[in-house]
Amino acid sequence: MSLISNPEYSLINGQAHPTERYVEVINPATEACIAQVGEADSGAADSALRAAVDTFEQLTKTTAHARSKVLRKWYDLVVEHRQSLAELVTKEQGKPLKEALAEADYAAGFIEWYSEEVKRAYGQVIPSHSQAHELTTIKQGVGVVLGITPWNFPLAMITRKVAPAYAAGCSFILKPSEKTPLAAIALAKLAIQAGMEVGAFQVLVTNDSKGLVAHLTASPDVRKLTFTGSTQVGSALLKQCADTVKRTSMELGGNAPFIIFNSAKLQEAINGLMAAKFRNAGQTCVAANRVFIEQDIAAEAIKQITQRVEQLKVGNGLVEGVDIGPLISLEAKQKAQSLLEDALEKGARIVYQGEACSGQFMAPIVLVGVTRSMRIFHEEIFAPILSVIEFAEEADVIAMANSVPEGLAAYFYCDDVAQIRRVSQALEYGMVGINEGIISNPVAPFGGVKYSGVGREGAQEGLLEYQEVKYLCQKFN
């Protein structure tokens, strides 16, 4: 089965939506158009919404075990098509194929987890205030869900929303990034092949994300919005959802500190740093944005970090041995360069920079002497620039780590048990990696605090995001 055709179309109620307007999908490595996808307008959105409302009513009559079987079959199909999905991601997003394969496995993991977790969506029997009453709770799907997903993980960001939503009995309208719509359409086709109701997973592709989303959020029929993206956009979406009092889940921007204390096993810390910083060319919301190194070990640590960064290979993600693919756009590269220029003007120094790259490629850089006065300290880099800040005291590094409004992920390496306890509790972040640079897992709750969002994805918490708890009080005569 071919997952994608060209041209491709938005998927509404299981059917390709005809249109005369198309979104061009660009390979960021070659800058060539690899496919055209029919663009959805407000009329298409209305059709999708009607189908989603009807399907939600159907889903209320299905059992958890029936939905579990569909999810399990979807998981099997994603695993079966792992290679094709990964190649699709590399072509439309740019990440190295080895990372795209890992993402396909990660995406499948959410489907597998929720195929089982749906069977454990228990209610409660509450001790009653009287012998004449029985008090219970049940869990029901929240309703029609609108999901907005980013381009940096075009498989996993979808399955970790759609799988729990379907498990809960919700229908889902997806608005994927216009930069990476092909993976979204492929996943939806596989879900329908697995037996998912055609109105339970629909895909709307558009270049007018703002207009289409505003049209849908204005409808009271959409009962929940789930979004992964920038804090600025997330804040605007929260305001749009206020009038109709929608449930929301927001996974927003990060500015992750990565702290290396004197007691750390340095080689292990650097291994963790390389994974946390350079995966997906630094284009992840949990990427190590600010690297804090204790002064006593800073010189040696920077030396070893530089030696590792020198070995990284930049190139087309389909070429074997490539570690860093292109950035998603020229605008992304220009923003990263402006952060670098600002830091250099304010006193930072480059200790390593790879050979200059053309197009959307960017060579890895190690930058030292970073301070709070620089934009690179306060803004998400989303590029392969490793910025180093030295510190002297534990209290100082905690204060610097917590000084930004974001609170998604943080990392620290340390072998002092007492310090591990203190630091893990003091960091104002929703997730903390302790002697570990890769923390995301379908079985654990993913999400941030402060300006990094509300709600959690993955784990039991991810299912609860799509459920309402209904309290039943029954009196017996």
Task: Explain what this protein looks like in three dimensions.
The protein has helices spanning 42-59, 64-80, 82-93, 97-117, 156-168, 181-193, 209-217, 231-242, 266-278, 295-310, 330-345, 375-378, 394-401, 417-426, 459-464; strands at 11-12, 15-16, 22-26, 33-38, 124-126, 133-141, 144-148, 172-175, 201-203, 222-228, 247-251, 256-260, 288-294, 349-353, 365-368, 385-391, 406-407, 409-413, 431-434, 449-450, 453-454, 467-475. It has 477 residues and is of the alpha/beta class. Strands 14-15-16-13-12-18-19 form a seven-stranded mixed beta sheet, sandwiched between helices. It is globular, with a radius of gyration of 23 Å. It starts with 10 loop residues before the first strand and ends with a strand. The mean pLDDT is 98. InterPro entries: Ald_DH/histidinol_DH, Ald_DH_C, Ald_DH_CS_CYS, Ald_DH_CS_GLU, Ald_DH_N, Aldehyde_DH_dom, Aldehyde_DH_Superfamily. It is an enzyme of class 1 (oxidoreductase). It comes from Pseudoalteromonas piscicida.
